[in-house]
Every structure is written in structure tokens, then in C-alpha cells.
Amino acid sequence: MAPSGDAKLLFCIFFISCCCLTVTLAEVPVDCCLSVAKQQVLKHAIMDYRRQVAGQGCSLNATILVTRRQMQLCVPANEQWVEKIVEHVEKLREHCRKNKYKNPRCSKMMPRN
Ligand SMILES: *[C@@H]1O[C@H](CO)[C@@H](O)[C@H](O)[C@H]1NC(C)=O
């Protein structure tokens, strides 16, 4: 009697955890840029960037610039001043990698994971 009850309970817990996990994952909001800044941004404030491609849950092509303070700025995907900033970030990242992140500026450039 008892073992079968335990098994049912375990199954139930297992099932509920799976459900919760799925729901949690599904409910993570997709972080989309809904509009982009027209205004230019100082490249020295930017430590990272991401690309947002329209059609992958978001309706807009955009570039997301991440500042030192982890603020995210939505800017146009293909404008020249944006590409300059992206290049700057790539160069900084390369420089940091070569210097094994010894420069204090590089502390925020450590690869995640
Ligand atoms: C977004 O960019 C892709 C190429 O990167 C292009 O094919 C697509 O038409 C663009 N979509 C919008 C909404 O601008």
C-alpha cells in the first residue's frame, strides 16, 4: 500500500516540477528592442553588444549596446556610427583576450561562462 502511494507521490512531484519548469521557461519574456535610438552613443561607454534580428521573436532589426553599467541601448542595426562602436568593442575584446584581462578596463569584458 505505502510503496505504491509513495511512487504516485514521487511521480506527481516529478510531473509538477516538469510542468513548472516548462512554464517558467516559456514565460521568460523575450528581450526585444521595440524602437531604436536615433541619437549617437559614446563608444567608450560600451562594453558589449548583441544583434537583434527581426523574425526571431522580435519585430525589428537592431543592435543592442551594453554599457559598463549593464544598461542596454537599442540602436539601429546597420548605421555607420553603430558599426564603428561594434568595431571598437571587438578591438577591445581582442586586446583584453591577448592581455589575459589584466587591464582594469577588461574586468567587464570577461567571457561569460
Ligand atoms: C533585417 O535584416 C535582414 C538581414 O540581416 C533582412 O533580410 C530583413 O529584411 C531585415 N528586416 C527588417 C524588418 O528590416
From TrEMBL:
GO MF term list: chemokine activity
Membrane-spanning segments: none
Gene Ontology BP term (one): immune response
SUPFAM superfamilies, sorted: Interleukin 8-like chemokines
A single GO cellular-component term on record: extracellular space
Signal peptide segment: 1-26
Domain (Chemokine interleukin-8-like): residue spans on this chain: 29-89
SMART domains: SCY
Source superkingdom: Eukaryota
A Pfam family this chain is assigned to: IL8
UniProt-listed InterPro entries: Chemokine_b/g/d, Chemokine_IL8-like_dom, Interleukin_8-like_sf
The keyword Signal appears for this protein: yes
Keyword Magnesium in record: no
Keywords: Cytokine, Signal
Name of this chain's protein: Chemokine interleukin-8-like domain-containing protein
Originating organism: Takifugu bimaculatus
